[in-house]
Amino acid sequence: MTITSEEHVLVINPGRFSEKAYEPFRQLPFVASLTVIPGIGYGGRSVSARQVTAEEWARTTVLLTGKTLPPSREAAPNLKYVQLFSAGSNQIHNEPFYKESDNVIYATASGTHGPAISEWVILMMLTFFHNSHLYPKWQAEARWGHDSEFPRPVIDQFGRTLGVLGYGAIGRQTARVAKALGMKVVAHSFSSPPKKERVEVAVPGSGDPDGSIPAKWFTGVDQLDDFFSSGIDVLLVSAPFTPETTKIINKKTLAKLSGSYIINIARGGLIDTDDLIEAAESGLIAGAALDVTDPEPLPDGHKLWSAKNISISPHISGHCVGYENRVANIAIHNVKQIRAGKPVTNIIDKAKGY
Amino acid sequence: MTVTSEEHILVINPAEFSTKAYEAFRQLPFVSSLTVIPGVGYGGRSTTVREVTAEEWARTTILLTGRTLPPSREAAPNLKYVQLFSAGSNQLQNEPFYKASDNTIYATASGTHGPAISEWAILMMLNFFHNSHLYSKWQAEARWGSDSEFPRPVIDQFGRTLGVLGYGAIGRQTARVAHALGMKVIAHSFSSPPKRERVEVAVPNSGDPDGSIPEKWFTGVEQLDDFFSSGIDVLLVSAPFTPETEKIINKKTLAKLKGAYIINVARGGLIDTDNLIEAAESGLIAGAALDVTDPEPLPDGHKLWSVKNISISPHISGHCVGYENRVTNIAIHNVKQLRAGKTVTNRIDKSKGY
């Protein structure tokens, strides 16, 4: 890895992200140029205001992008670091440039979503168990309602168990809040031995840096059954979407998760949709909250929309003000690390897919 | 205080509470009898299935009650300890027995509500800032919505400030969760010097036992202005309702709380309703979540029901399964303390009113 004396940074900005977020990057002494191509539209549906020019591809050493990569290695010979705006990287796995560029470091935005998505998880869990969906109904009717109208009695989480499937930034920040709520946490990690430490870069001071929150750790495919059977009251699905995790929540595992509330913020494909609907309708599980679905987007009128005790939001749990600032934090940290010959964070292991 | 060799316990049980919760009490070696009079109805609107007999009043040494007290001191000469089911004790202040019985110890259920009500406060805060009220709307329409439909951009709480007015069990448990969410906490206490320690008895290991979570403490009436002006993003009103705190949130204090989101779990009377409505309608404050109102119950059609950015629930934030078990924890702890000549927890100071 050649350390160039100066960096040329290109930001293909998703729609709605501020351009000011990259000013701290621009100000760094080793940054010779920083170009932002604004986006139009929103999130995954945004497009760029213009194409990247051949000259821009040619000089770029550091790229911040949602999914757009250079057309070929020849077009971008100096590109050494690619920072994604998402925690997942599935969107680039089949791109020619990604498959061919062996000496380019790719990093995800893992960690940026910790606060926003963990808050969403906690919010959905508490909403379900407090029956708070009834408050706006009563308020719209301008009347003092009554808990005799609740579908089930309210319970709080103190003393209950949160199971975290995939103990990354989101899992850890959720575990941190769950612990404050008085919950016991059990964690599963596919890495064997599990990587207990994880110091957050995007949001310093968050998460579970030394991995001490879980009362119990489970690792690898072989301990999945034990994990699912360990008395989980609320399950957070926050693992990467890989061949190993596809439909990992299915009829068999749901039977072990009897009575639990399932929350998915990872990818819809980790859950078998039909099995989930059946488990919710039959009362096998308490219910579910999904910010991701399979299929996604969930088509209008799909039966999942009306399944009993299942709440759905349209993959927006991670959207929040200041998100791009946190992505910039990671990129700045990593570029400094690369220039100093030190390890980067959030690096995608191409063999693993995340 | 005479320590009798055996205790006779009378439970005038609010309607929705289990009678089994008191078995742990009945089993204690020094408990000679435990009588439970079941309730009918619900909560504040419940009544008992029968009256307390004269014989029962005469022998009772320990009483667990919502609001019913003996008709006179003569009727209940042995009553030494009264355990309330509520954190507030306003309902007793004008009772003849309460005013006359100087050597009876009264204790509130302060602490039992920590988990349920702090969850409610966190839930309402996250619900507002995540615009999650729209999820169920989209789901009812069976369509994949977009955050372009949000009334305001989503923000997370990491790095923002929670101000806690009244650092009791609920304030502390909320602070604990807020801290895990990455919030900075500042607290105001009317006790001068502030009582920093508070070890929870109803829900052991909850709250903030050594008072170390707040980065800054404010005490007494004289520091209220400084507290309100210290950059609070979210204000939790969790102080007792006393002449000192009545309408403490008013036009003047709201001006200092510019931009804040206000959450009231205490009593409606701590907030001037008209001033709050004006502050919300004008955008001076971000909004409010109220589980208590003035007047209460809020009459059908009252203008507060339809105020911009104000959410209301009908004083149910503290209702949850297992509540009576937690009240029993306090009573058991205190009776043991009394019998050993030690101090009790949650004791009502008649001169302060709480």
Description:
The structure is a homodimer. With about 350 residues, chain A is an alpha/beta fold. Chain A has two domains: about 5-110 and about 320-340, NAD(P)-binding Rossmann-like Domain (Rossmann fold), CATH 3.40.50.720; about 115-310, Rossmann fold, CATH 3.40.50.720. In chain A, about 25% of the residues lie in helices and about 15% in strands. Chain A has ten helices and 14 strands. The first copy, chain A, has helices at about 25, 55-60, 95-100, 115-130, 135-140, 170-180, 225-230, 250-255, 275-280, 325-340, and strands spanning about 5-10, 30-35, 40, 45-50, 60-65, 80-85, 105, 160-165, 185-190, 215-220, 235, 260-265, 285-290, 310. In chain A, strands 10-9-8-11-12-13-14 form a seven-stranded parallel β-sheet, with helices on both faces. In chain A, strands 2-1-5-6-7 form a five-stranded parallel β-sheet. In chain A, strand 3 and strand 4 (about 45-50) form a beta hairpin. In chain A, helix 4 packs across helix 6 (about 170-180). At the A-B interface, helix 4, helix 5 and helix 6 of A face helix 4, helix 5 and helix 6 of B.
